Amino acid sequence: MDKHESIRRRLASLALGELPEREQAEVRAHVDRCDPCRAELTQIERLLDRAGERKSLSADESLHESARTRLFAAIDSENKMETTARRHIRWALLGRRIVKNRMTKLAAAVIVVAAIVLGVRSLDGTPVKAVEFSEIAKAMGEVPWMRMTQSGFQDDGSLPSETWFGFESKVQAEKDATGYVRFESVTEHRRLEYSRSSNIITMTYLEEPAMNLDSPTLWLESLYKALEERGARTTSVRMGDYQGRRVQIQELSRSDGNERESVTLYIDPKTKRLHAGKGTRVDGAGKVAMIVDVDFDYPPTGPGSIYDLGVPRDAKIVSNMPGWNVHAARERYRQAWGETSRECGIMERYWRIRDEATREYLAVIAHNTAVNITDAMNVVDVDYKSGPRHRQERHAVFESGQAINDEVWAKSKQQLGDTFESLLTWSRAHHAGRGRITIDLYDGQYDCSVTREHDNWGPPSKHYHPEGSIAPEIALGDLAWPEISSPARIIEDDYAAEHKLICFERQQQGLLSHGIVSPPGRFLYYLDPAWDYLCRRKVTEWRPDAPWQKDAAWLNGIDPTQVPNGSITVEEITEAFQAPNGHWYPKAIVERQTGVRKDYRQAPLGINAIRRVYLDLSPEFPEGVFDANKLPGQ
Amino acid sequence: MSDGRFEELVNTHGRDVLSVALRVSGDPETAKDVYQEVFLAIWRRWDSFDGDVNWRPYLYRATVRKALELSRVRRSAPASLEGCEPEAPGVDADAGLRLDEIHQRLTQSLASLPRQQAEVFILSRIEGLDHGAIAEIVGCSRNSVRVSLHRAVKELARRMSEYLSWNDR
Predict the structure, then answer these.
(1) DSSP secondary structure letter of residue B123
(2) Does this complex have an ipTM over 0.90?
(3) pLDDT by residue (tens digit) across A304-354?
(4) Does B162 touch chain A (CB under 8 A)?
(5) CA of B83 vs chain A CAs: smallest distance (Å)
(6) Cα A529 to Cα A343: distance, rounded to the nearest angstrom
(7) Among candidate residues A265, A258, A261, the one with its CA nearest the CA of residue A232
(8) Nearest CB neighbour to A557, from listed B32, B126, B144
(9) DSSP for A219-264?
(10) pTM > 0.90: yes or no
(11) Contact criterion met (CB < 8 Å) for B48 and A48
């Protein structure tokens, strides 16, 4: 990190008065000579001055009296509605007093139940029985939509102000006071999240919704179960008024050494549906952790899209759906650099070539990775592709735990050979025999995966991915034209200049989330226009202490042992050929890697893997090779 | 707890709640609405608070949050600050209008920051609390307070750069 950047990162500390004297002098000396730093420091100081001006504001007695009067008038108004209902409290309170005086829990429980069931009376004196959970669940099980409107305070997170559940349409949506909106469709396996500050909708794949939308009963069950598991018990049931409606009021509460919690449910006795709820939680130190009010209603229809929740139509959509989504990538580039930029122009060509060149093929990719004999192959991938359908079989050459020496390798080498035909023949024999194989299959809709260890196939897994496959990891397209989907910028560097290549650079900020560190990353893709824009060299750099990391404080508070080491990986196509279809393809790829020390010194790059690619560009596929129903292990 | 104790709560903390709401929103009417909503929420479940409750941290946070929420919704210019400390003497009318606009912009910028950053900035730079007190109120470590404050300062300075440059015109 250079001196200027180091100073820039301390400007806020200087303005906040956090720097020791020696550092203050250093920073000020730099600021005196540096216009941008001086301008930035001035802005920060002015911001703090403006904020500080508000310290002098305070409410005088007349403003407070006006607010207080209004508050108690509102309370009186609410009290009048409740007054007649409070007669019924006598019965529930009687039950509670008896509970406190009783010796045994069982007897206390009996008394409470008796008080609730027998002692509660409505206005006209007829006994009112508590609405049972099963009745509420049944009543709510028939609604197509439920809306919860919430307000209040919660210590450990933002409270959504409105939440929708569509039980027939299988939709869940929510929005909160910050303008954040979320819309999930289970049938479309899609989650959309909107941020008002950026005016962007981010689309991601929804594997499983947070809540089972098969029925509101299940939602209600989880609410009651959670309360029960925390030890909450019903302490009173009475009739009353809430917001001008006649309701049954059930109060549940619990208390242990750590916190006290109470929940009040307002139930419509005619429809037996939840009308409203309140929750309060106070921790052991007397600190209020939650005060929440919820209103329920059951409209016949609900939001059909995120726009129905107030998201503007001009919000940009950024797709993070799995698989290669060229439309989303194209849009991201346009937004980042502009339609006429050099980046956009080259990426359009890159994507088109990648799509054409990998539409249909049968590839065998032989991997030499980190074995004690340098030319030993230890994995053979057979890669079948036809349009969106893709199957990759990963064959381990050696059995797990097998000692590999010259003799063992010589035997395997004889069986494997080093031609397309010999490797394909070996893999098909291996498939019929024993040893480790993993098959990843995408049939256009579902990603399936199955593994064999020694003799036994496990059951296949299956996931719905209509937007494209998220597996396999190393296929022909990834080796020759890796995805550069997040907008990368073209840079000039010595390597690119020397080899007449176009270098795309992408930087990624480090992230600390839930205690897990994702270090800052830098990725260089060197495309060769003379080789059909093959990515001739790819550099991946991970550095916890990266000069491109904008937020210097991102790792504060983390245990240093949690931070992974840095590394540099260079993947290079060392041999390539031009096929009859005009496209260039890789023949050999070498991967080198090294660790990065904190002082930026690094050991020389050592070979991590060598890959050889063999191709059939007019393949005849075996029958059923893309059929998920024909996978072994079913 | 009895109604008398609720009144005692309002009498003890009410003026502070109103003042915090005023300092965050910059608007007396919004401040009164914040006051109303914060205390009504407590009143409506008063029966569930038995035993001792440490109200100060909750009231601080609930007031700051509600003030930011209502300010986000209401983008109107602040009315004259009746019932508050007067402006410094000698300020000319144009400068006064610009100052109002800067403060309005500050409120809006605070309202759109991530929640913890906004709370920490307000408690530190407007309420004048130290990191230890803020950590106790917000429920995080002192280091987290420091990081949130730095991020808030940088982001606010960026968002308000045009307004903060007005003195240079």
Answers:
(1) I
(2) no
(3) 999 999 999 888 877 666 555 677 788 888 888 888 899 999 998 998 898
(4) no
(5) 6
(6) 14
(7) A261
(8) B144
(9) HHHHHHHHHHHTT-EEEEEEEEEETTEEEEEEEEEEE-SSEEEEEE
(10) no
(11) no
